[in-house]
Amino acid sequence: MTKLDCIAQNIIASTLDSNEFFRISECKSAKEMWDILKATHENIIESKEAKTRNQARRKRRQNRKSLNLCFMAKKEDDSSSVSSSNSSNDEKYSKLLQAFQETHEETNRLDLLNNRLKGINNCLENRVKTLEEELENSKTDFKNLEILYKNSSCKCDTLICENLEKKVHYLVRTVDKLSKGQSNFENVLASQNCVFGKA
Questions:
Q1: Fewest CB within 10 angstroms: 37, 86, 118, 155, which?
Q2: What is the rounded CA–CA span in Å between residue 111 and residue 2?
Q3: Main-chain phi, psi angles of 31, to 5 degrees
Q4: pLDDT of 59-118, one tens digit each?
Q5: pTM over 0.90, yes/no
Q6: How many CA atoms lie within 13 A of 150 on its CB side?
Q7: Side-chain half-sphere of 26: how many Cα atoms within 13 Å?
Q8: CA distance 185 to 125
Q9: What DSSP state is assigned to residue 77?
Q10: Cα–Cα distance between 68 and 61 in angstroms, integer?
Q11: What is the DSSP string of 87-107?
């Protein structure tokens, strides 16, 4: 698996809700994830379009029935007052529908953004755990080397001893860098948790 494919998989996974994530959790590549999501959403869109068409047909039938009942029940001179009240109701309904649609779109946008941020946060938390494990392993290795170094009586060539000392110093610097990196990373993660806690 290439690095770009891993990045693409992380991006795709971080934008999904839990239902969609389970659909693609067994995928081995970003292309496979994309194909499954594309097929799923095409089916959903087709079924939504069919549902919308059916609802529009039902609404037209109901409108025709209600108009027929109105015309039968009222006299011809009352028909002008009925049409004016219907037009005002239609305007109110249109405004309410538009406001609802705008609110719904904004909610969906914020939900998507929230899912992306949660995915990034999860990714960062996993990276912190990995780095902590690496740090602990490095500390253990360093302690073991230090013990060996202190307990060994040098019966070797001075060149070999110098090489071993260089390696020990290199490991000491690496452990120091990892420790500093871990504390910096924990500070960043803590600040992100504050932001996620407020959202």
A1: 155
A2: 30
A3: -60, -45
A4: 877 766 666 655 555 544 454 555 566 677 788 888 888 888 888 889 988 888 888 888
A5: no
A6: 5
A7: 2
A8: 10
A9: G
A10: 11
A11: HHHHHHHHHHHHHHHHHHHHH
- Tokens in use for 150? 């202190």
Helix (H/G/I), strand (E/B), else coil: 16: coil
Q: Please tell me the total number of residues recorded for the chain in this structure.
A: 199
What stretch of H or E contains 157? none
Alpha-carbon torsion 87, 88, 92, 93, what sign? negative
CB 38, CB 24: distance < 8 Å: no
How far is the C-alpha of 91 from the C-alpha of 88, rounded, in Å?
Answer: 5
Look up residue 118 and give its amino acid.
K
Tokens matching residue 81:
């007052």
Residue burial 152-173, b: 16+ Cβ < 10 Å; e: rest: eeeeeeeeeeeebeeeeeebee
